[in-house]
Amino acid sequence: MKLKRLRDIFLMFMACAFLGWIYEVPVGLLETHVGYVNRGFLFSPYLSIYGFG
């Protein structure tokens, strides 16, 4: 039971972090007018602040 809850929390964290990245990329394109800027953590498409939020 505990492992299932922990897995669900982790999957929700990853989903929200990925959706936050999807949100931030177009905002970065519109704000900077430079082009694609990867705002993810290191080389991954995840923003942990959205996962924790």
Secondary structure: elements and pairs:
Blueprint: H1 2-32, H2 48-52
Describe the protein.
With 53 residues, this protein is an all-alpha fold. It has one domain (2-52). 68% of the residues lie in helices and 0% in strands. The longest helix is centred in the first third of the chain and has 31 residues, at 2-32. The two termini are 24 Å apart. The model has no long low-confidence stretch (mean pLDDT 84).
Task: Summarize this entry quickly.
The chain crosses the membrane at residues 9-29. The chain has helices spanning 2-32, 48-52.
List keywords for this structure.
mainly alpha, 0% strand
Order of helices and strands: HH
Assign a percent range to the helix content.
Answer: 55-70%
Sequence stretches where pLDDT stays below 50 over 5 or more residues: none
Mean pLDDT: 84
- N→C terminal distance: 24 Å
Number of domains: 1
Number of helices: 2
Question: Can you tell me the overall shape?
Answer: elongated
Number of strands: 0
**Biggest sheet overview:** none
Radius of gyration: 13 Å
User: Which structural class matches the secondary elements?
Assistant: mainly alpha
Q: In percent terms, what proportion of residues is strand?
A: under 5%
